[in-house]
Amino acid sequence: MANRSPPATFLLFLAAVACGAAAARHNYSDALYKSILFFEGQRSGHLPPSQRISWRRDSALHDGASVGVDLTGGYYDAGDNIKFGFPMAFTTTLLSWSVIDFGHTMTPNHLSDAITAIRWATDYLLKATSIPNTLYVQVGNAFRDHSCWERPEDMDTPRTVYKVDASHPGSDVAGETSAALAAAAIVFRLRDPDYSDRLLQRAVRVFDFADQYRGAYSSSLHNVVCPCYCDFSGYKDELLWGAAWLHKATRRREYREYIKRNEEVLGASDTKHEFGWDNKHAGVNVLISKEVLMGKDDYLRSFKENADDFICSLLPGVSSHPEIQYSPGGLLFKTGGSNMQHVTSLSFLLLAYSNYLSHANSHVPCGASSASPAELRMAAKRQVDYILGDNPMGISYMVGYGNRYPQHIHHRASSLPSLEAHPGRIGCKAGGAYYLSPKPNPNLLIGAVVGGPTNISDIFPDARPIFQQSEPTTYINAPLVGLLAYFSAHPYD
């Protein structure tokens, strides 16, 4: 029998986590409320009377008109004014997964807010998939938009519409969109059955399109989507991801057989030690592992083995993978911009897998040792606490949470005067003065989590021009919603 005791370095890490958590006593419920509220600040289109981030107003009200399709609504993904379909779909999938796995730990108000955030996205995705074998994947010219610093309400850059279709495939973005619609269909199954059915039917149709017309949208629309959201991992992971969510949503044998039949062809073991809007393999393995741990679909056990290896690679003191590092302050670190996207997504997988293991009364084998579900939860909690202020800088990386948080975030609407404060239009280049201003942003984008330290030294300069560190994104917050939901109900777990 394998030794079930984790290595001493990991035990020391966990002891530090436990002491830090007991001392911090974070208000996870307040952080959860704010993490969901952030999505209201990212809304595009007609804003409802219930809009709480009141300095935002209606914007991009004619999106899609140039091609005769209503593409209003949805989310701006970050601090600019473009609607990128690929990260928006991933955001939707992770918000839905957060509710599916952790919605029962939310208060009724938090749960209602989270479901509203999901529906704002799915209403848009239904519009973007309204024509068979066509998916509208972007609204706005990123290069023109990024040459301006202006409010979404003022924006006058081209709202060019881009799509993938049978002649210009995009299996990656279509597979992710199918996953988003299928995951959301589970969320709405009991809450709005008719809407759920509509989402699921559309998910099936979009997946069939993704699978039949295979190809990467980064090839079909290279000059449009690269470098912003170029899919470096290819489209195979999204086909498995879409099939996995359709299997979970429909329980149809055809999707289970699709997954098994394409396991090697689509590279299920190719985790690359990451999970995010680009690479979904780790998410596929964790999602399918739940069924295996429950005693179902045992012939998909290889996915659990992949998940075990991946989860072990994330544990400090256990991992030997050079792609996974930890800063001196304990932050999970991956080279590249916007590190918090990795922190929240990978921590979400740690927490989700810990729950699946708990229900199966199981551990995760890590070589000659193993790790318990509680140890996985503590590793995830350490990352959440770091975000909320338990770090060498003593700063919360969530705007509006705690006494000290980023004041100069890379976000146009937050950094420019609101319409109420400045009713006159602020032109494309006129906004540059606000971009370069040393003053704090005038509008508080409550709940926004910025990219955080992008080197391993735990340093954060809080500088608007350094977008890799100071820009918030929807896909940083989406998995954090699930994490905060769990820890708001289990603050000392």
TrEMBL record:
Q: Name one Pfam family in it.
A: Glyco_hydro_9
Which family is this sequence assigned to? Answer: Belongs to the glycosyl hydrolase 9 (cellulase E) family.
List the protein's name: Endoglucanase
Classification via PANTHER family = ENDO-1,4-BETA-GLUCANASE (PTHR22298)
The UniProt entry's GO biological process terms, in alphabetical order, are: cellulose catabolic process
Keywords (alphabetical) are:
Carbohydrate metabolism, Cellulose degradation, Glycosidase, Hydrolase, Polysaccharide degradation, Signal
Give the range the annotation lists for the signal sequence: 1-23
Give the source lineage, highest ranks first. Answer: Eukaryota, Viridiplantae, Streptophyta, Embryophyta, Tracheophyta
A GO term for molecular function:
cellulase activity
Enzyme Commission code(s) on record:
3.2.1.4
Positions annotated as active site in the UniProt record: 410, 462, 471
| Residues covered by the Glycoside hydrolase family domain | 28-484
InterPro entries, alphabetized:
6-hairpin_glycosidase_sf, 6hp_glycosidase-like_sf, Glyco_hydro_9, Glyco_hydro_9_Asp/Glu_AS, Glyco_hydro_9_His_AS
Quote the catalytic activity from the record: Endohydrolysis of (1->4)-beta-D-glucosidic linkages in cellulose, lichenin and cereal beta-D-glucans
